Structure formats: C-alpha cells, structure tokens
Automatic annotation (TrEMBL):
<protein>
    <submittedName>
        <fullName>Uncharacterized protein</fullName>
    </submittedName>
</protein>
<keyword id="KW-0812">Transmembrane</keyword>
<dbReference type="InterPro" id="IPR045519">
    <property type="entry name" value="DUF6476"/>
</dbReference>
<dbReference type="Pfam" id="PF20082">
    <property type="entry name" value="DUF6476"/>
</dbReference>
<keyword id="KW-1133">Transmembrane helix</keyword>
<keyword id="KW-0472">Membrane</keyword>
<feature type="transmembrane region" description="Helical">
    <location>
        <begin position="15"/>
        <end position="40"/>
    </location>
</feature>
Length: 104
C-alpha cells in the first residue's frame, strides 16, 4: 500500500467545486420561490356570503349547498329554501314530495 498523500487539488477543481455548490444553492432557492408563488397565487378564496340567513318558522337545516349566486338549505320539514347569496333574502321555497313506501 502506498501511504503517500493525495496531491493538492488544482485551482480548476476548486473553482468547479465552488461553481457546483453555488448552482445547487441557486436551484434550491429557485424551487422554493416557485413553490411559494404557487401557494400564494393558487390559494382558494372563499365565496362571498351574506352576514346572516334566517330560517323561517323554527326550521332546522339538514343540508346546505351553493351555486354561483344562490344558497340552498334543505330543512327537516322536507323543504328546500333557496336564498340569494349576496343579500341573504329568500328567493324560492320548494316542497319535497314524500316518497310512498311502495317506491322505496
């Protein structure tokens, strides 16, 4: 076995090592910047909602869904109440016809 130490690296190898390290750091910063920009730009914004919706006559909601300009609430009394999204005013009431036992 040869116990002679390795010769000192040439200046070109030192420069190449510095260049590769710098390139890796710049690429990591670039990937982080792209991820941060994507997270900021693609964050979902909640749709505008009325400050309050009052259900008529002590009705209790069992389900809620929404469209572009309306909110629908299904009540325990088998009724669908359609409200305006911005004002919260009741637009329409739809009574759900109960199913008879023979069609179940």
């Amino acid at each position: 076995m040869d116990d002679t130490p390795d010769p000192a690296p040439s200046p070109d190898v030192k420069f190449l090592k510095w260049l590769v390290t710098t390139l890796a750091a710049v690429m990591i910063c670039g990937v982080l910047a792209v991820v941060i920009v994507l997270v900021i730009r693609l964050r979902p914004t909640p749709p505008p909602l009325p400050s309050e919706i009052t259900l008529p006559g002590g009705a209790r909601a069992t389900a809620v869904t929404q469209g572009d300009d309306w909110i629908a609430i299904v009540t325990e009394a088998e009724e669908i109440l359609v409200y305006d999204r911005l004002t919260g005013r009741l637009r329409q009431r739809v009574q759900i016809a109960p199913q008879d036992a023979a069609t179940r």
